[in-house]
Structure prediction request, 277 residues.
Amino acid sequence: MRKGLIEVIILVFGLLGYVTAAMAQVNHVSINSRQFDLNSVPQLKVNIVAQNDDVSRLEFYIRQLDDGQFQQQKLSVQSINRFLLQLNGTDVINDSNAQLIITEATAAGAITLAAIALFDAPYSVNSATLVSNVDTPRVLPVTKDTASTASAKTSVKASQRRQVDGRLDQPSSLSDIQSAPSQAESSQQVGCLLERDNSDTLWRIANRYKEQWHTSVYGAMLAIFETNLLAFSKQKIHLLLKDVPLHCPSTAILSEYNNKGVDRKVFEVIEAKHAAK
Prediction:
């Protein structure tokens, strides 16, 4: 009897340890913004910071009270960037107290990681759909009257002329028009480099550009990091490499960092996660 009791205790503590390990894989989750109001189909963005950026085991639901009974609909998930997900539903939400439920699949079954009030999240007029790579105004770097900056301007202008000349020389066939842009092109402003020197920290660079990009210093740091992963040692946000050019984030990426409070929390979680490794 005693042996059986000990085995049960070991089993229970083992399962608790597994559940804790599974839940610890998610460092942070929160609603970034919602793009819908009451009595409409759900569309929202969720910030997520997970170990190894793996969210494959997570599922997202909206739970609401409908005719006195709780109804739950599963949301489709699409990655916008490594810290931001787009969630869409198909059924109208008519409960002002509806909640977003995040679960994680484990060997012991689905575990609820969070239940977040849906309509407490900030409303945003920005569409939750992914932004296609279209010709948009170039985000130009802040300039100084130095010889190096003048040289950089000349290089950028030459690059712009080559791009224009190249487009004029290309055949205008349907296959050329429909060719998909590379991931690098869609995340960067092509030919646009950030001004920096080796004494600059990520914070200082972001602070230099935040007003121009209409975001906070935290949003600017996240945008720079997402656009220039290879410029960070081991892809850790606190290990910015020296002597590495930094590309300007695309307008699509910058548009995702428009909430200072949320961006600050996400940055702090990522920084703590990377510093702990």
